[in-house]
Structure formats: structure tokens, C-alpha cells
User: Fold these one by one.
Assistant:
Number 1:
Amino acid sequence: MSTKREAKLADGRDLFYFDDAGSILSADRKQDTRELDARPELAEMRLDVLSGEWISVAAHRHGRAFLPPAHECPLCPSHSGFASELPDNFDVAVFENRNPSFAQIAGASDDPHYWVEPKLPLGVVKPSIGRCEVVVFSPEHDGSLASQSLTRVRTILDALADRTDAIMRMPGVRTVFPFENRGQEIGVTLHHPHGQIYAYPYVTPTQEKIYASLSRHGNSLFQDILEFEQGSERELIRGEHFTAFVPFAARWPIEATIMPHRHVQNLTELNEDELAELTSVYSRVLRGVDAIYDSPTPYVAGWHQAPRFDGGENFRLHFKLTSPRRAADKLKYLAGSESAMGAFIADFPPEKTAAQLREVL
Ligand SMILES: [Zn+2]
């Protein structure tokens, strides 16, 4: 079990340290003494009346750090030549994003109906309420989540569960999504191993679709998927508490899901035995994805958790990883059919991806 310590950055943003079990770091940490500009204005949400979806428009995100040299990395611990976002050494650190797409404001509405516009009026703009945090997986600039020790992976899971619990209680927050974008190929702007947590004020389009499926199939949907994939050609790992598999209708050249056997809605509900097993299953899946080819695989991966609203409890926690990599030097791009029509054309059968992954797990 890791230890949490709370601090503040110079402009008032929250900073949390999560120290590994048995960490040798001192409890006292240096303060952030930088002179920082005032925090940017809140982004806005605009309603797209054709899709009925909310679009967050953040004018300030354009100026954020883009692939800085390693000695000016904002996620490495500060050193004599450069003051980063982390004033002192750490094992895992979490802090509020300096240029957030979603942030807390005074008087944020906590009414879920605030985001429902049944008649889709034109020109609707609302404040982009929520929260964005950065999760730094390691003080080391090189490496990845997959290259971390199991002790560290457990600290990362503890951090995600702790932050999910805290953020879910913030006014106006409906959904907490911890995720990782990995690889320059998919637009990562910092190489340092890190993930993010986005908290949204509404039930996202992806979740809306899952709730529509729950109402069509019935509340056993997640359990039925689990039992359908267990023992199939697509199963990757079957533990006592979790099963990893490539989904039956995977869209991407590499795709993997981890699903708990017990119906839990989010990471905060996992017990000690489940967390211990998940640490190992999570790490194995990520290492496997990186071992398919000679170089690291770009991916998007995240923890899908139940949104907070009455009636939302049939949503089961699951981890989903997707990668556009279809060969050592080839990526799948979302072209006409996928990006314009939302109609995916898979490059090869999910059973083949599963066979490739099982060889290296
Ligand atoms: Zn770094």
C-alpha cells in the first residue's frame, strides 16, 4: 500500500505525492517557488446540435509544452538548471493540469439535467466544468508504464483510485476517466511516462451508447460479455478476479480489455486481493502490447468507470487499450468511413490479434 502526501504548486494548484510501499523518500518535500502566470480562463462547452454532443473549446491549450528537450521536461523532478512542475523527487505524482479542458468553478451546477437540452437550441454555450489532472508514473524521464516495477504499478493504481474517489465528489462532476496516451504517433506532447485524469460534467457519448446497449440487452450485459469471452480464442489472461481479452468486435489492429469478475463500478471499489491481481494483469497486458514489435507500441488506454447519476450502477469498471499499429512501420488512420460515418473497417480478425498477444504475454 502506498502513502499519500498533499502539497500545492506556486499558483495554487493541487499536487499529490503517492510514495511506493517501502519508499525511501523523505516525508518533507521542497516547495514550489516559481513565479507563475495567473491560471487561464475556463474553457467553454458548445452544443453541436447535429450530434447532440458537447464540444469543449479551450482557446489556451495551443500554447502548452510540445516535445521539450529532456533537460526542460516539466514532468521530471526540478533540478538546479530547471524548475519543472514537480518541485522535489517523487515516486508517483499527480497535479492539476496547468491548461485544463475542464476545471472547477464556484457555483458549478450539480444538476445532471443542466447538460440535457431536449430541443437542441442553436448557439448554446456552457462553462467547461470538471477537472483535469496529470499523473506522473515515475521520476525517470525514460521508460513507460510497462517498464515500471509491480510495486510502482500498484502505487499508480492506488493513485488513480484515490483521485477517482476525490474527484467524483467535486461539484458538477459526473464522470472520472483516468487514461494514458502513449507515443508521439498518436499526438503525445511529452515523452515522460505519464497519464491523465479527465473529469467530465456529463455522461459522455461513449457511456451514453453503453447505457443504450444496457437497456436493449439487459442489465447482465457486462457479465454476459465476460462469460462469452472467457475460454474463447480471444482470451488473453484469466485470473481469479480479472479476465483480459481482445473484444469480439475489436475495431483497432491491437485492442485489449480487462474486466473484473465481480460487478464493481469503479477503481475505488476493488478490494486488496483484486488490486494485487490487477497490478499484475495490467502490467502483463501493457508489456505484451510493447513486445509484439521491436519498438514501443503507441496506444490509447483508459479505465472506464461508471458515471455518477441515479440509475448508472449497471455500468461495470473495465480497462480498454486500443492501438492504431497494424505492422512494425504502419499505422491505421481513421479515414472516410471511420471518421465521417463512424463505420469501422477492421484490418484483421480480433482472433489474430489475440494469438499475437498470447505469444508475448
Ligand atoms: Zn521528464
Number 2:
Amino acid sequence: MDKELIATHRDFLKDSLRQAINFRFTDQHQGVEPPPLQKPPRPEQELIALPDKSEWAAFRGTDVLDAIANRMSRRRFKAESLSLAELAFLLWSTQGIKKQLAPGTAVRTVPSAGCRHAFETYLLVHNVDGLDTGVYRYLPVEHALVLEHEDSDLVEKLTPATLGQAFTAAAPVTFVWTAIPYRTEWRYYTAAHRVILLDAGHVCQNLYLACEAIGCGTCAVAAFHQELMDQLLGVDGTDEFTIYLAPVGKC
Ligand SMILES: Cc1cc2nc3c(=O)[nH]c(=O)nc-3n(C[C@H](O)[C@H](O)[C@H](O)COP(=O)(O)O)c2cc1C
């Protein structure tokens, strides 16, 4: 291994990156408006309302100790659909908004450095009650979905987009998180990228634990074909791109 190359890349893991920044020159300190909490839906997109907490009574009762103890990466899923209430619960658990604090800032069910929450959640749906096969996106502000586009070849495209990991295509729904880096760069400039990745871990861990609570399973996937996955979602690959994904199904 090239030790110099490794040393350069290790720097990315160090907080010295943040300490080198003059925060007076960040967009936040220059008075630039914060970017929006979520990517706005296109005008023609209709909002699909999601069941809220009032419909999640059946999901209560799993001891947090059991959920943590039983959590594991699950790659085999039953050929059963997910209900919309189950999907809504998993979305809220991973990115749900609890309170808006100020323009561009809201506290969610997961932590985020500087409360910047750089992620959008896309769903590759092919077996969820009431939803046609296609690519959807979660709107945490409204706790709703929008259909990004229908795609009857979704399942065929998913295996190559995950570098041959066929278990992703067998899941009734796959969560795909993109990053919109500017949301965090606005505050942290070049130190943003390290904390965006730290933030992503919290999101996926909540998905693991929420899945355990409702008889589902998931597996974090960081090995994927960047361009194919971005194409599948319809994101530009520059200002927004895939960083992590996780298929979900009944176990
Ligand atoms: C950042 C990250 C990336 C991962 N990427 C993949 C992946 O691409 N494919 C896969 O099958 N598992 C992937 N995993 C799952 C790990 O293989 C799994 O967590 C590990 O083997 C430990 O097993 P456990 O989660 O059951 O405890 C990933 C896990 C993490 C945290």
C-alpha cells in the first residue's frame, strides 16, 4: 500500500480539517440565506399523505434493549408487501421532523452536525400496499411522499446499480439517501463532508432499529455504482448524489 496516499486520505477523518477553517468566510457568516430543509417538490407533483403516529399503535412494545440486541444485517426478505403505515414509521424514524426551529433548521429523529441534515430520502418501491412501482421521495416537512417517476424496470436496474448485490432487488422497498452537500457546506465549508458521512450512520442505524420493532430487516449498503444509482433516482450527481442505501423487507 502507498503510505503517503493513505496518510493523505486519513486526514479526512481528522478534526484538524475543521480547525483550519476561518468560519468568518462561510456562507452562513456572510449572511447568505440557509438552503431549504428539503428539496421542494416540482409544481406538478401531487403529495401522497402518509399515516402518522396515530396509526402506529401496533408498532409500540418492542423493548429498545431487544431491538439493539437483535439488530443485524438482514439480506433475506419474505415475499410480502410492506403496509403504508410501516413505511411511514420507517421514514419518520430515519428523517422525521420533530420541530422547525428557524428557516432552514429543524430537529429530526436523528442527530446532525449543526442541525444541517443534508439528506434526501428516495424510495425504490416495488411492493408497498397502495403504491405503484417507481421512485418516490419523502418530504419530511409535510410527512408525505411524492412520486419522482414510475419505472417498471426498477428491479432489473437495481442489481447492476448495486454492483451485483441481488438481495437489494429482492426487497419490497429500498431506501436510498442522497446528500445535498451545500446544506452542510453553508455552515462548515470544507469540513462539511466528514460530518455528512457521520450523520448518515445515524440515519441508517435508526432504520435498523425501527425495522427490528416491526418485524422487518435491512442491510446497509455502501458499495454501489455511483452513476447508475444517480441515474436511477434522477439526480444530477454534482449538487446531489447517492451516498448510502438500504433495502427493507419483512423477515
Ligand atoms: C458503511 C457500511 C457499508 C456496508 N456496505 C455493505 C454492502 O455494500 N453490502 C453488504 O452486503 N453489506 C454491507 N454492510 C453491512 C456489513 O457487512 C455488516 O454490518 C457487517 O458484516 C456486520 O454485520 P451485522 O450488521 O449483522 O452486525 C455495510 C455496513 C456498513 C456500516
Number 3:
Amino acid sequence: MAVVEDLRERLLRVVPDERRVANGDSVLEQHAGDLSYHAPHRPDVVVFPESTAEVAAVLELADATGTPVVPFGAGTSLEGHVIPLEGGISLDLTRMQAILALRPADLAATVQPGVTRSQLEQAAGPHGLWFPVDPGADATLGGMAATNASGTTTVRYGGMRAHVLELEVVLAGGQVIRTGSRAVKTSAGYNLTNLFLGSEGTLGVITELTLRLHPIPDEIVVARAAFPSIDAACRAAAAMIGVGVPVTRCELLDALTIAALNAFSGTTFEASPHLFVEFGGTSIDGDLATTRELALDEGATSFESESDPTARAKMWSARHNALMASLALSPGSKAMTTDVAVPISELPGAIEHARRALEETDLRGGVVGHVGDGNFHVAFLLDPDDADSIERAERLNARIVEDALERGGTCTGEHGIGFGKLAYLEREHGDLVPFYRGLKRLFDPNGIMNPGKAVP
Ligand SMILES: Cc1cc2nc3c(=O)[nH]c(=O)nc-3n(C[C@H](O)[C@H](O)[C@H](O)COP(=O)(O)OP(=O)(O)OC[C@H]3O[C@@H](n4cnc5c(N)ncnc54)[C@H](O)[C@@H]3O)c2cc1C
């Protein structure tokens, strides 16, 4: 206890505000865990910096004292990323929430890391622009960069790596560096911007980001198709991508998830597997007609499209509620979410394999996916205190990952490694692990940055 008080006293010298160097029970608890089944662990103290200089001062102090630091955005990551496994400092970036510059002529914005994607969307909208990376949760842009997040629109626009032009990062000892530039392309040197994207707070703290924006499409239409089976829905999605229909979103929801959504969001979707598809542009009638045809070829039992903004927003908000709706089916449960991605031609086979594997257990899980990217999730609902069901879910997750790797895919399409997927990273990229460790030592020689995550 005395050690913790001493740490807090020292932190107060660099962040001189009692409210921003907090160690009350509720704030420690809020920074101890995430929505996943991973066991929580409290930090010793939570620091809320308001500037790059404060972040640098905290990291300098932490490095000198060997204190672990876990950056914290909105805390919506799903593989234990933000859990301070060794205590220390949870560095909550949500007070760094300024939009520093909006440059419509460059289709770009510069923001602090605590700005959420919806805040950026609100600021860009009046300029006819939007930021399309949308992980469903209203995450911070710093957290999204640190996990290389993607989401429903990635099939058309790409994920965070396609959108970050420039970063300011504070390294473990407090040094501030900048990577990239405001130009949309560069061939200058190693691509350290991409190295920090997806580094999960293990190499440094992102304190500023310059991001690409896009014009809001003139016309947007969404379509909802119900299918007799999940395989038929997957085949239809693979066919749409295969013939090059330029969809902006292509999302799969299985019957269990649709039923959960109807109960949670008051929607009345037919209780069967669905594809939710969106088109954006200037002349989308042809794309819509091709999609309808491909869906009907796979036996779609209904196909409805709408362009009304309220109806569109309702449909996507229902989709974004999928995880919460599933959790509501079993109050008190926590989620284990698989997150494999495979080449699109392998998608129907991979989902069929996952579905059969799920049927062989008595676990309850819904399948959803950004299927246009070949990325899907099975969300198991687990009692976090039931070790047996967690073990069975872990075995099932391992089977799904193994199958994805055999199909030329990856153990995580978007959620990242955290500590829940460390073993799978080793399985997927064992030959690269020594290089990962070397990079970690180079940027963080004393191992204070989010220890126990991302690098096996
Ligand atoms: C309902 C739901 C749906 C989701 N759907 C998707 C999805 O479709 N696609 C997807 O990609 N993810 C999805 N996620 C996961 C999650 O939203 C993303 O991983 C998101 O990018 C995390 O952002 P965050 O601000 O919550 O970061 P946090 O969870 O706070 O942090 C994530 C990681 O980044 C590090 N970090 C945070 N801020 C910084 C910083 N400034 N500098 C350095 N490191 C930092 C943390 O230490 C941690 O390792 C979903 C989550 C939920 C709850």
C-alpha cells in the first residue's frame, strides 16, 4: 500500500491534479477488465493525462521506476488488452479529446487519441465528409489505431491501416516521435506508422493521429436478405465479392443473433440467417439488381431494400447491437468472441466447419461476420465463473482457428491479440516471434508498456 501511495505522490508531481491521478475503488474497477470472459485485474492507479507533455512525463517516471503502463481508450477491446495483468498505471486517454484540425480540402483530420469515431463523424459531417472505420462500439481513435480496428465498411474502404497518415507517439522513456506525414503517400524509410498500428499499447502511447476522411456518398441504399441457411447466405456473399459488386458493407447475422436483436432492439426481422448489405455512390441500381439476383440464386426467401436514412440507421444500429443483444439473452454472461478471417472463397467452408463444431458442443453462440472481408465471429455466452464451459469454449475456439489457418487465414481479423490470442499468434507466426520480441526490446527495453500482451 505504501508503495502505491508513493507512486501516486510521484505521479502527482507530473500530473498535479488529485482528480486525474485516481485510486478510488470504482475507478480502479472500471479499468480492471473488459466485456470479455478474461479475469479482471486492477491497476494500482489510473492517470488521466491532458497533453502529450503529461503522457511523456508519466512514461519517463514509469520507465525509471519499472512501473507497468497500460494505455486505456474506451476499453471496448475483447481479448484482455486493457487488463493491467501486473498492476501499475492505467493511462486513460479519454481527456485528450480535441479535434486539432479538420482539413476538408485534404480529406483529412488531426485528432487527439481520446476522440471517438462518432465525435469525428459529427465534426466531419457538415463538410460532407465521414470517417468510415466503424468497429461497432464507439471506440476511441487511439484505441482503434492501437488495435488496427476495422468493421462493417472495411470491405470498401479498408481498416485503420488504410486511414492513418501520421502519428505522434510517446515512447517508454518519454521521447516523443512522429511517423508518416500529411501527404497521402510516402516512400520515406521503414513504415513505423504501420508498426504502431496494431501494437496494442506495447510499443508506445499514440498521442496524435492524422486520419483520412471520405466524401459522404450521394446515394446510399441498404438491402436485407433472409436465407434458408447460413451456408446459402455465405455463398451469396462470396458470389457478390467474387463478381466485384462494390458493396460498402456486407454483414452476416445468423438466426440466433437475429432473434436476439428482435428481442433487444424491437426489430421484427424474419428469424433466419440474414445478409445486411449496403451500396453507396452515384448509380447503384445495377449493383442492387445484381445482388438481388445472386441472393435469389441462393434461395433467399426475402430481399428488401431501402434508402430512407432513418430506416438505414435503424438497421445498422441493430447490427451494432449484436453483441449486447446476445449478452442480454443470458444476463450476467460474458463473451468469448472468435475472430478468424479467411480468403473469401474459403468463407462458406469455414463457417460450415464452425457451425458443425458449435453443434457438437452444448455451448450457445451466435455467428456474425464482416463476411465481405472473409471475417466472422462466433460469440459464445459464458458464465465467467464456470471454468468447465470456458475450457470447452476455448477448445472450440482452437478448432475454429486451426481450420482458418489451414485455409490460409488468420487467428484474428480485427480484434487483435491482447493476451487471449497469444498462443494462436505463436501458432500462426512462430517464425516471426523472435523479431516481434526484438522490436519490443528496441522500443521498450524495460518492458513497461502493456506487459503480457501482443508478444508471446
Ligand atoms: C460490441 C462490440 C463490437 C465490436 N466490433 C468490432 C469490430 O467490428 N471491429 C473491430 O476491429 N473491433 C471491434 N470491437 C473491439 C473494439 O471495439 C476495438 O478493438 C476498438 O478498436 C478498441 O478501441 P478502444 O478505444 O475501446 O480501445 P481500448 O479497448 O481502450 O484499448 C485497446 C488496446 O489499445 C491500447 N490503446 C488504447 N489507446 C491507446 C493509445 N492512445 N496509444 C497506444 N495504445 C492504446 C490499449 O492498451 C489496448 O491494448 C468490438 C467491441 C465491442 C464491445
